[in-house]
Amino acid sequence: MTELLTVENLHVVFQTYAGTVYAVNGMTFSVQPGEIFGLVGESGCGKSVACLAILRILPGHGRITAGRVLFDGHDLTQAKESEMQAIRGRQIAMIFQDPSTSLNPVFTVGSQIKRIIRHHTQASRQATEQRALELLDEVALPDPPRIMQAYPHELSGGMQQRVMIAMALASGARLLIADEPTTALDVTIQNQILELLVELRRHVGLSILLITHNLGVVAETCDRVGVAYAGQIVEIGPTSEVLHTMKHPYTQGLLAALPSAQQKGRDLLSIPGSVPNGLSVIPGCPFHPRCPHVMEVCRQTPPRLTAVNPGEAQHQVACYLYSPETAQ
Ligand code: SF4
Question: CB of 55 within 8 A of CB of 85?
């Protein structure tokens, strides 16, 4: 299948007072049409920065230093700013953890959605109104006419996130980047929003790049998953395969850190050590300072992503425990 989005060997750095921060260090993944792809990892692993780089909305002190971002075969890293303005929102929409920061507090929900519809279509006033009501219905908001008249602060966080998703649909975006869209919500609402994303993928054919720190969210939602660590993908593949036969010690650590019913009453496990601050590039495998299986080779040469089962390229891992180099 032809990929809708391909991120290839992406590198992003930030110039800070403390020095250069290497935030994304050769990240590679793709999103296929109609797919939900999960990018998972702890905070500071480069997931969100990679997504800001895709849309070229990095803060002023950040820049892409290498790599390509192909959207429909067109390299966004080389696109003119005017082309990017046409792509942002219209082709690729993004929603964030806190929807209240993206909604304008002084306009009603209806006027904000209608403005997007008018921006992208030549629809009449009446057709615009009708489409806005349909969109609010599509994202399962109750009583759309009332929601149209509401101001953002009159809605709960879950309702605001549904409005943000409706606005993404209003623009006709083909790819939705959802950065921790449910992290600020309680568990029941979180599940409802995830179900909505799965539903939209099924009915509208929306492709979704879902960023999360939670493997449980990935399990419920994503077709494929990439595990990010220190700005790189360390394991990638179909979700069921990665979660049932996970190989990388970091992926195993993330799973062990998930709260479960069996652990009730016991301390939560966590991965020892902390995510690197990016102020220097760690030689060898970036996970080696935290890895319980570290070997000499791990400290010297970075492992490459290789197929877990030779001949089946889908599930890949970057770890010497599974690569021929270690066996020699
Ligand atoms: Fe651990 Fe070595 Fe594998 Fe890195 S390459 S995850 S340090 S065993």
Answer: no
